[in-house]
TrEMBL record:
CDD domains hit by this protein: LMWPTP
UniProt KW keywords: Hydrolase, Protein phosphatase
Enzyme Commission code: 3.1.3.48
Pfam families on file: LMWPc (PF01451)
Keyword flag Magnesium: no
Protein name, UniProt field: protein-tyrosine-phosphatase
Family designation: Belongs to the low molecular weight phosphotyrosine protein phosphatase family.
Organism listed in the record: Streptomyces siamensis
InterPro entries: LMW_PTPase, Ptyr_pPase, Ptyr_pPase_sf, Tyr_phospatase_low_mol_wt
Length: 163
């Protein structure tokens, strides 16, 4: 059974699809694509069925990442089939922990930047939606930086399942 990671932001059109694309690339580079599934969703359903924001797509493609995406809303029932829920900011983190049906499910929720030692006391990936293109580029930098530590943590979990 694969180890399942789901990234969650507000509407699932900017930050979480970016994190999904970047982390999927890291998983493939590590040769773990048969052992790890990567997905994303939003805390709200405003954009359900939409593609990623065109600025997200542009930044991903300019940096060699895939950008195929359809937005959807995270549901409480998903906790039973997801191993790790990665929130993009502290608001998402709190909302997801409240949504969790059990304390064990709440423990599955982590902040993305908690995997980046350089993040220091700044746990949030800022929402670039209402800003300019440089906000999307900054978002990508934060996601890439945190993906290194996240991959190491997921590899540890996967190796624990395999051995």
């Amino acid at each position: 059974m694969p180890y399942r990671v789901c990234f969650v932001c507000t509407g699932n059109i900017c930050r979480s699809p970016m994190a999904e694309s970047v982390f999927r690339a890291r998983v493939e580079e590590a040769g773990l694509d048969q052992l790890v599934e990567v997905d994303s969703a939003g805390t709200g359903g405003w954009h359900e069925g939409d593609g990623a924001d065109p600025r997200t797509v542009a930044v991903l493609e300019a940096n060699g990442y895939g950008s195929d995406h359809t937005a959807r809303q995270f549901q409480a029932s998903w906790f039973s089939r997801v191993d790790l829920v990665v929130a993009l900011d502290s608001g998402h983190f709190k909302a997801l922990r409240r949504l969790a049906p059990t304390p064990e499910d709440a423990d599955k929720v982590r902040l993305l930047r908690s995997y980046d030692p350089a993040a220091g006391d700044d746990p949030d990936v800022p929402d670039p939606y209402y800003g300019r293109m440089d906000g999307f580029e900054e978002c990508l930098e934060m996601v890439e930086a945190a993906s290194v530590g996240l991959l190491a943590a997921v590899q540890e979990q996967v190796e624990g399942q395999v051995s």
